[in-house]
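Researcher: Quick one. two chains, 307 residues in total.
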Amino acid sequence: MPPHDPQMLKGVLGLLLLSMLSTGENYGYGIVTQLRAVGFDDLAEGTVYPGLTRLEAAGLLESHLVRSDSGPARKYYRLTSAGRAELTLRRAAWDGLVASVETATSDLTSDATTHAAPAAEHTTGDPA
Amino acid sequence: MNVIDRVRIEAAILRYDFWLEMRGVRGSRRRDLRRELRTNLTEATADVGATRALFGIGSPKELAFAATEVDPSRPRWSQAAIWASAVFAIVVFGCLFTAIAFTAGVEASGVTGSTVRGSVFPWFGVDYAARVEPGRGGLAVGAGGIGTYFFGLPLLTFLLVAQPWRLLRRSRQTLPAAE
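Model:
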C-alpha cells in the first residue's frame, strides 16, 4: 500500500480515532496498534496522542484509568454521547467528500480517455 | 525493559514535562499527561523496542505543544521567572558597566576632591555620582534612582511573559462548563 498523505491523514485523524473508539474503549498505544492493523502504518504515536487529548478536551471522549499488569495504569478512552453524534456527522461528511471526489475524478478519467483517443489515432496514423 | 530504556523513556518524559510547564499547563494536568505518556511508551517499548517507541512520539517539545493546543493555560510563571531573571541580570550588568564608564570619565577629566553628578543615556531619571579623591586616594560611585530599573523592568517582563490575565480567561472558560 502506498504511504498516506500526511495532510490528508491530519484531516481525517479525528474521524479515525472516533471510529476506532466506536468499537469499544481503548488506550493510546492500543489505538495506535488498532490503526496499524487496518493499514495506517505511517500514523505516528506523536500524532495520535495529541489527537486523543484534543478530542477529550472537546468533550467527545471521556477517560478513566485502569490498572495494568504489564506496567503503569492505562488511560482508557471511550466515546461520549457528543462523540457518537460527532462521529455520525463526520462519517456523513466523509461519505459526501468521497462521493464528490469520485465523481470529479471519474469525470477526469473519462475526459482523459476521450482526449487521449484522437491523440492515439494521430500517433498511429503518423508513420503512414 | 532494561535500565537504559527506562532512563531514555524518563528523559523523554522529563523533556515533555518541561515543555508542558513552559506552555503554562497546571500541575495536576501535567501529571496526567506525564502518566499517560509513560504508559504508552512502556507499552510501545514492550512491543517494538524503546528506540522505535521514542521515535514514534517525535520531539517531546512538539508533542507538548500539540497536546496543549486547546488547553486553557494558567499564567506562564516559570517562563516569566526565567525572562525576568535574564532582564535583571542585563540591567545589573548595564548599570555596573555605566557606573564604571562614568567614574573613568570623571577620573580622566582630572576632577578630584568633589562629587560629579550626571545622567547617562539610556538611564533616564538615574543620577550617577562619582568622586575621585586626590592623589589616587580612592573613589566612590553611586547611582540614585536605579531601583526603578532594577525592579521595574524585571517586574514588567515578568508580567508580560506570565500574562496573569490568563487566570480571568480560564475562569471564563470553566464557568459555562460548570453551569
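Chain B touches chain A through 25 residues (CB under 8 Å).
Researcher: Thanks, that's what I needed.
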